[in-house]
Design brief:
This protein has 873 residues and is an alpha/beta fold. It is 46% helix and 16% strand.
Length: 873
RNA sequence: GGGCGAGUAGCUCAGCUGGGAGAGCAUCCGGCUUACAUCCGGAAGGUCACAGGUUCGAGUCCUGUUUCGCCCACCA
């Protein structure tokens, strides 16, 4: 087959992608698994999602792991799927409705939900297609959706069980309310942002005359005030406890209570209490049995409790309240003040805390079990430092508000009787039965209108995806999973909750290792976001560079820090590298033709021994790095082996032998074949393409066995290092002394080791080619031509006869530079060795090493001086 | 307010349990060498943020300072 001079990723990837689809190579065994199972569940992307850099990184790395394991011989199964993403998806569809001038209420619940399903059918597979384009080797036959029938069954099962165990309860508590989405959201869905606003100092008249001044950032909430609180230990105000004040504007009577939560240092030291709209006030209200007055409608406008302000939106009400206070002479001052205000994660609207009846999960017990699982090592975080954050969150966990006033999602499986009694059930029929048993007769039931938080289905993902609550074959074979890889942004939302759910329902951890990836930031180090317009579209990068280049660049750039920059120059590097791989394949095929030489049993030539040794070392290193999830180090080891050891040195040295030497071809080919296999987990497309071109077995490289490391060959590597030093030495001399490019000086090497001399002699033509030199002589005691340029080597000395090509003075300057450096090195080594404490306390091997260094440098200095004097002064 | 991460060559970063400062890109110089100019060869470039400390020895361990970034948080 004729290969193009440049690697063309786009064509190849499309072709290979089809090949994988048709070949079902990523299908994992069902039922009895004879190999060691290794499973991963994908963090399900939102159906509304498009691939972003975070996805590309995370799924690229998961694919590296799963492909490595598959080749290593495990029964590797990567379970894919998508998340219905309640609020996010509902918002998307509502927005498209808005363009038609409609709201979901115009359609009604059923029609609206159908619209979302239609939307999902049309657009929901986009991200899956993008993952496939990235090369993800998921078992697509096992793809699931968090709102499909099976997972919905799991959700109902879990809800009912938790309800029966009293771990789910319903009640009126202070929750985070988004007036735009008109739903409650959990604490985690609130993003805090610092806002410049004012601290309003308001006078509250006292019944006994006079007034107290209260500072607030939300003056409109005074409409819901039902008390005033002071710290009972605060001398200034303690005497007021038990007295009453009057609420300005609405003229409500407000008891003054003592509460130690009040910080005398903050504001005026007096706190207005609005139990319906503030978390602290809510608590104080409960302990003092205060009335709660909700002043807000669901859309954030003031309700009938707001008196003259009823019907206004929040902002207007705030201004008007302030105006009114000012007019009444009750506003003392407004102090500029910057503080954190909660915003809806999905729509950035300011969150209003308010009292609302919602469903909650009792988290304490679940969290304790999850803490224990990490503490005793059943689950391990990589990098380890994330453990602390996980622990902190779980130790301070609060109950989870799981009900949402949305339509898109799992409807809460609770039915209410005429008197409001709740029946949690798997189905309407079961609810009816339960109700019948309870009331002794058939009654009309109404299902709860709300749906569950999206995360209430995804926290079950690692086992619901395998068919739970059935005792499925997959659960037996693949649960618990081995590895989870995700970003830290969903550590609380998802990771910790999966651990809790798994421990509770499966009595086991969901996964053993959690790898937390860094956050990808833009080239300037800024967080990428749509609104900033600085996000990078990985699909664009894949179009330009290819999926493999993107994967390699990301794997290579992955560090264990908290952030990593989106690759830029690394993409060029990766593309260039793949082109290099492609071209060396062309080179190898040029020489092997259709022959597919087997791996040679024994080799004699130095370069063959060397490259096989390096291959072994690299194989060992790469395997270790993959096992430890050091993706960047694995990529680096492969990059440097392929480019430098194989292409730059081995191929160049072996060239003269390729015309006739079959064993050379064998080694050349064997190493390439291993290289392709070693690289496959990171760059699957190009390696599969090469595999096909080579016509190797098995059919797909994705099912080939990952290379095993053999013994390394120290002697060969040492001798090769000497050869490399000689070649580099000549090149340096040529460059430093401006030897004309066409000139072919003769050269001599003086070395003591006879085996090395033999190896060098065997490679003379290669050395000549690599250095563009004429005749060489190698021996223990060569006689340099007068005026030769000289280089002191670790193994001996190099002489290049450039006498009539260069300026002798230039060579003197060069040698003097080297002498200076050698003297410096010698002085440093000698200095250390003359330190008694060093000799006394440093380990013997370190001292030995220092001694040989000293000897080496001393010899170098001596030789350099001799060389200099031979050039005359 | 609490916590975490980063600060190493012009840029992006690697440096595991402390023992002669590395890579890629960019720069400069030389090469169209028959796999590759997305290439080949060579060179230059660093008080490892700062200040102390431990040690025979610190980029690596400890303390403090500082700059940047992020996460968490019910001081109204």
């Amino acid at each position: 087959m004729e290969l193009s001079k440049r690697y063309q990723p786009t064509e190849v990837e499309a072709k290979i992608h089809r090949y994988w689809e048709e070949g079902n190579f990523f299908r994992a065994a069902v039922g009895v698994v004879s190999k060691v199972p290794f499973s991963i569940v994908i963090p399900p992307p939102n159906v509304t999602g498009r691939l972003h850099m975070g996805h590309a990184l995370n799924n690229g790395l998961q694919d590296v792991v799963i492909r490595y394991r598959r080749m290593k011989g495990d029964e590797a199964c990567w379970f894919p799927g998508t998340d219905h993403a309640g609020i996010a998806t509902q918002n998307v569809v509502e927005k498209s409705l808005a363009k038609e001038g409609l709201t979901r209420h115009d359609l009604g619940r059923e029609t609206f939900v159908q619209r979302v399903w239609d939307w999902k059918a049309k657009y929901g597979s986009e991200i899956i297609e993008q993952l496939k384009a990235l090369g993800c080797s998921c078992d697509w036959s096992r793809q699931r959706f968090t709102l499909d029938e099976g997972l919905s069954r799991a959700v109902r099962e879990v809800f009912v069980r938790l309800y029966e165990e009293d771990l789910i309860y319903r009640g009126a508590y202070l929750v985070n309310w988004c007036p735009r989405c008109e739903t409650a959201v959990s604490d985690l869905e609130v993003e805090h942002e610092d806002i410049d606003s004012g601290l309003y100092h308001i006078r509250y008249p006292l019944e006994e005359g006079g007034h107290v001044v209260i500072a607030t950032t939300r003056p409109e909430t005074m409409l819901g005030d039902t008390a005033i609180a002071v710290n009972p230990d605060d001398e200034r105000f303690a005497h007021l406890v038990g007295k009453t004040a009057r609420l300005p504007i609405l003229d409500r009577e407000l008891p003054i209570v003592g509460a130690s939560d009040v910080d005398p240092e903050f504001g005026t030291g007096v706190l207005k209490i609005t139990p319906a709209h503030d978390p602290i006030d809510f608590e104080i209200g409960r302990t003092h049995n205060l009335e709660s007055i909700n002043i807000l409608n669901n859309d954030g406008t003031i309700n009938e409790n707001g008196g003259p302000f009823a019907g206004m939106d929040r902002e207007t009400a705030r201004k008007d309240v302030v105006e009114r206070l000012k007019a009444d002479g009750l506003l003392e001052e407004v102090v500029p003040y910057r503080h954190a205000v909660g915003h809806c994660e999905r729509c950035s609207t300011a969150i209003e805390p308010l009292i609302s009846t919602q469903w909650f999960v009792r988290m304490r017990g679940l969290a304790d079990a999850a803490l224990a699982a990490v503490k005793d090592g059943r689950i391990e975080f990589v990098p380890e430092r994330w453990t602390k954050l996980y622990n902190d969150w779980l130790e301070n966990i609060r109950d989870w508000c799981i009900s949402r006033q949305l339509w898109w999602g799992h409807r809460i499986p609770v039915w209410y009787g005429p008197d409001g009694h709740a029946f949690a059930a798997h189905s309407p029929e079961e609810a009816a039965e339960k109700a019948h048993a309870h009331y002794g007769e058939t009654v009309a039931l109404n299902q709860d209108e709300d749906v569950l938080d999206t995360w209430f289905s995804s926290w079950l993902w690692p086992f619901s995806i395998m068919g739970w609550p059935d005792e499925s074959e997959d659960l037996k074979a693949y649960f618990p999973t081995d590895f989870l890889l995700t970003g830290f942004d969903i550590l609380f939302f998802w990771v910790s909750r999966m651990i809790m759910a798994s421990l509770h329902f499966m009595n086991d951890v969901p996964f053993r290792t959690v790898y937390i990836t860094p956050l990808i930031v833009d080239a300037q180090g800024q967080k990428m976001s749509k609104s900033k317009g600085n996000s990078v579209d990985p699909m664009e990068l894949m179009k330009e560079y290819g999926a493999d280049a993107l994967r390699l660049a990301l794997a290579h750039a992955t560090s264990k820090g908290r952030t990593m920059r989106t690759p830029t120059t690394q993409l060029d590097d990766a593309r260039n590298f793949l082109n290099k791989l492609w071209n060396v394949t062309r080179f190898v095929l040029m020489h092997t033709g259709d022959a597919r030489p087997g791996a040679p049993d024994t080799v004699d030539a130095l370069e063959d021994r060397y490259i096989l040794s390096r291959l072994s070392e690299t194989t060992k290193t790469v395997r270790e790095h993959f096992e430890a999830y050091n993706f960047n180090l694995a990529a680096e080891a492969l990059y440097s082996f392929v480019w430098h050891d194989y292409c730059d040195w081995y191929v160049e040295i072996v060239k003269p032998r390729l015309a006739s030497d079959e064993s050379a071809k064998g080694v050349l080919y064997h190493v390439l074949r291993d290289i392709v296999k070693l690289l496959h987990p990171i760059v699957p497309f190009i390696t599969e393409e090469i595999w096909q071109v080579l016509g190797e077995e098995p059919e797909s490289i994705s099912r080939a066995a990952y290379p095993e490391a053999r013994a390394s060959d120290r002697d060969a590597e040492t001798q090769m290092a000497a050869l490399q030093e000689i070649v580099t030495g000549v090149r340096t001399i040529r460059a430093d002394l401006n030897v004309p490019a066409k000139a072919q000086p003769t050269a001599k090497v003086s070395v003591a080791s006879q085996p090395l001399i033999d190896a060098l002699k065997a490679n003379e033509s290669a050395i000549r080619a690599m250095t563009n030199t004429g005749e060489w002589s190698f021996g223990p005691d060569v006689d340099p031509a007068p005026g030769s340029a000289r280089k002191v080597l670790a193994c001996g000395q190099l002489f290049v006869d450039v006498a009539d090509m260069i300026d002798i003075e230039a060579e003197k300057v060069r040698l003097q530079g080297e002498l200076k450096q050698a003297k410096k090195d010698l002085a440093q080594a000698s200095g250390k060795l003359s330190n008694e404490n060093f000799l006394k306390r440093a380990p013997e091997d370190v001292v030995q090493k220092e001694r040989s260094k000293q000897a080496e440098f001393a010899q170098k200095v001596e030789r350099l001086e001799a060389n200099l004097s031979s050039l005359g002064t």
